[in-house]
RNA sequence: GCGGAAGUACCCAAGUGGUGAAGGGGCUCCCCUGCUAAGGGAGUAGGUCGGGAAACCGGUGCGAGGGUUCAAAUCCCUCCUUCCGCGCCA
């Protein structure tokens, strides 16, 4: 969400930015919102004048009543009553226009960083850097569900019975591996100076409205029946929600937080649920990082964040690459975004395991997350978020990259303390 | 979940329909005194929106949102939060 004052004074920059994102259909919105804003401001000015008059006159009534001059009071009362209708109409118009302006402002995309590559859609995203050699063993890598089943580590059939498609039972060493990865990720981030949080896994509708659009809510969020509560789709929802309408002291910054939560997603729409496997599912668990910082530091933190994920995957011997989102694939709220992708030796390609985003001040403007300087002046914070790891999905990369020819799975050194010292998950004897 | 009480500024707190939302503490600045404590004065209602070149002016604002009224901190409705008691429960 842009500052309407910025849009007012720099309509050309805003339009140029819309073109760069290949959203030509939104171009007319700029002039539309400028006109609307002008109208809304003059309506407000007029309304303010009327309200000031009413206030003054109402006070006169009070004075006259106190002195017992009832007739004079009644006369002024009639005057104020006469203003009432005009004011009510004007106030309705003011609210309506304000809502309309906000609605438009929410769909006008944030100004992208100059470094963002220009491109129409995800096919034009740009590979930035590879970390580790994509490795292909001389034996065939099975589908990840088959690897897990051979290790007695997953039961999708029963999960479909109890909960439906998109759920899973993990069991035995695979379940333990899942928890180990999360525990390791938690400690990994704590060691890098992040503060560990376990947030609420349900949030109120008021917070939902703040952190996402209506369309997102419809496609993602599960509602609790009979309660004003929704299951979170990511811990970012409750972690950013924590800062809604707050003023932070500048010396508290940067806030560098890492949060664990289960995530629940309906996955309605474009992609839907994968038929098999744990790639795209209704319920998964995730370790996340969140940063709230000064505007001049957000690009520095952006680099710190994605590097954390890369380092994390490298300690588990998984080759990764970074892929920068091109302008057309970048969500409207984001200034810059970069996906971390893990190597799949089975598919011979990289696939997304995390997404690092710098939202600039757009999220902060929408949610009123502000920072107070020592001199009392205030500004909007910058917010960033990134995935550390989402184990069910990352298990795919983990298993494929650490699989031995006999079907057993190597445990990289970093993870062994979390696996009770195990260095390999062996295939159970029938 | 049930019953009771409450929510006003950095903190405490008065205000139950009417002209600028008292007072105290704390904090900041100034004055007096002069060796360490006290006295006097001033400032301290945020946030946000709008107008203005600026000084400044106006709207809004008493947990949130609605309503009644010429006028709401005050009356009515819904919700949230906190405290106390009871109940239930990892």
List keywords for this structure.
18 strands; RNA-binding; 430 residues; BirA Bifunctional Protein, domain 2; 20% strand; elongated; single chain; 13 helices; alpha+beta
Give the uncertain stretches in residue-range form: none
CATH class category of the largest domain: Alpha Beta
Distance between the termini: 59 Å
Topology, number of strands:
18
The CATH topology assignment of the largest domain is BirA Bifunctional Protein, domain 2
The mean pLDDT is 91
Shape: elongated
Main sheet record: 8 strands, mixed
The CATH architecture category of the largest domain equals 2-Layer Sandwich
Number of domains: 2
Strand order of the largest sheet: 1-11-12-13-16-10-9-4
Tell me the structural class: alpha+beta
Number of helices: 13
Give the radius of gyration. 27 Å
Helix content: 40-55%
CATH superfamily of the largest domain: Bira Bifunctional Protein, Domain 2
Describe the fold and architecture.
The chain is 43% helix and 20% strand. It is of the alpha+beta class and 430 residues long. Helix 3 (27-67) runs antiparallel to helix 4 (70-107), helix 5 packs across helix 13 and helix 8 (205-211) crosses helix 10. The protein contains 13 helices and 18 strands. It has helices at 4-9, 11-20, 27-67, 70-107, 144-150, 156-162, 172-191, 205-211, 214-220, 235-241, 298-315, 362-367, 391-401, and strands at 126-131, 154-155, 169-170, 195-197, 202-203, 222-223, 230-231, 246-249, 255-264, 283-293, 320-324, 336-344, 349-358, 369-372, 378-380, 382-389, 409-410, 424-425. The N and C termini lie far apart (59 Å). The longest helix has 41 residues, at 27-67. The protein has two domains: 4-105, Helix Hairpins; 122-425, Bira Bifunctional Protein, Domain 2 (BirA Bifunctional Protein, domain 2). The chain binds one RNA strand of 90 nucleotides through residues 41, 44-45, 47-49, 51-52, 54-55, 57-63, 65-66, 73-74, 76-81, 83-84, 98, 204, 206, 228, 245, 247, 368, 370, 378.
